[in-house]
Write a structure and sequence with these properties.
Largest sheet: 12 strands, mixed
Helix content: 25-40%
Number of helices: 10
Bound molecules: S-adenosylmethionine, iron/sulfur cluster
Structural class: alpha/beta
Oligomer: single chain
Radius of gyration: 19 Å
Shape: globular
Distance between the termini: 28 Å
Order of helices and strands: EHEHEHEHHEHEHEEEEEEHHH
């Protein structure tokens, strides 16, 4: 089967699958304060439907899949899904993005089931700030989850921290991340705050990666590392004194759309070729109406052909996310 290549010459190599829109945290940049309309349970893809989709993408030689959400670890029997995928396709690199609240309990089973990599989202190491941001007092659980993941043998753990000017961009906060990275041998990646429907990113403390790098350079020296994976969203740096690896995902100020090799499947089975475009394609309908794989492939290729060359310039003062689009929690990061 020929590779899935879009009209801008980008080859899809990475599919992100959202397992649920539900979450045990309430991060203010991911969902509106007043909450959202949760997706009905029977609208969520079943494990069998997810496995069928993985097998279709696999035929296009796609070997990298990431499970996300909402919070993927709140999906009932998530370990069984991982086992199903990895037993059927052992050569797939299966990753998960999680807030780690349930990781202490599940890390061992996830490892045994075959999960390859973990990205853990953690924006602050201050308990009060964590609670203010996520509306839940769960920092201790997250830290225990990180320790457990290390203990059971996950050795490629990345911490994702969304940078927020008023919250985690000062020297003390960055130093705390460096200490955590040293303790558990982690890479810390700072993500620029992005605009999504329902979040107040403009007043919400956006800060550019470059500004953050200046803060790092005020107490250590950041050295840029050569790019290993050309489709990576992150630029990698190393702190000279501490030796800690730091990444920056600069979706706003240093965009990487030209190297984008991703597609997303929402928890309710919509193909979303671009994170920031609200254009979606209803795969679930085809999965449930008896359509053959070739019909599903046709829809995937249609979605791919309409993938944006790049997302709008968020730095333009006039840019606002469409209000009628999904919130990040219902897309899947
Ligand atoms: N619940 C899981 C977690 O938090 O890791 C997975 C889903 S979450 C939507 C995936 C990633 O999106 C997280 O790393 C989160 O920090 C990031 N994210 C959510 N809203 C964002 C925003 N407005 N800007 C940048 N990153 C965002
Ligand atoms: Fe939940 Fe992750 Fe969104 Fe936070 S970022 S509300 S943990 S889905």
């Amino acid at each position: 089967m020929p590779a899935l290549e879009d009209r801008h010459g980008r080859v899809i190599g990475n599919v992100r699958i959202s397992l649920t829109d539900r979450c045990n945290l309430r991060c203010e940049y991911c969902m509106p304060i007043q909450g959202i309309d949760w997706i009905e349970r029977d609208e969520i893809l079943t494990f069998e439907e997810i496995l069928r989709l993985v097998s279709i993408f696999y035929r296009y030689d796609i070997k990298k899949f990431r499970l996300t959400g909402g919070e993927p670890l709140v999906r009932k029997d998530v370990v069984d899904l991982i086992r199903m995928i990895k037993t059927t396709f052992p050569d797939i690199i299966l990753s998960m993005t999680t807030n780690a609240v349930y990781l202490e309990e599940l890390a061992q089973d996830l490892k045994i089931a075959g999960l390859d990599r973990l990205n853990i989202s953690l924006d602050t190491l201050d308990h009060k700030t964590f609670e203010n941001l996520t509306k839940r007092d769960q920092l201790s659980a997250v830290l225990k989850g990180i320790a457990k993941a290390r203990e059971v043998g996950f050795d490629d753990i990345k911490i994702n921290a969304v940078s927020i000017a008023t919250l985690n961009a000062d020297e003390k906060s960055l130093q705390q991340f460096v200490d955590l990275a040293k303790e558990y041998r982690l890479e810390i990646r700072f993500i620029e705050l992005m605009p999504f429907s329902g979040n107040n990113w403009k007043d919400g403390g956006f800060i550019a990666s470059k500004t953050l790098r200046d803060v790092f350079n005020s107490f250590d020296t950041l050295e840029v590392l050569p790019m290993v994976d050309k489709s990576s969203t992150s630029t990698s740096w190393k702190l000279k004194e501490s030796g800690v690896k730091i990444g920056f995902i600069s979706s706003v100020t240093e965009t990487f759309c030209s190297a984008c090799d991703r597609m997303r499947i929402t928890a309710d089975g919509k193909l979303r070729p671009c994170l920031h475009s609200k254009r979606e394609y209803d795969i679930r309908e085809l999965l449930r109406d008896g359509s053959e794989d070739n019909i599903i492939e046709e829809l995937i290729r249609k979605g791919l052909s309409e993938k944006w060359a790049e997302h709008p310039d968020f730095t333009k003062i006039t840019y606002l996310p469409p209000v009628d689009d999904r919130e990040m929690i219902r897309i899947g990061g």
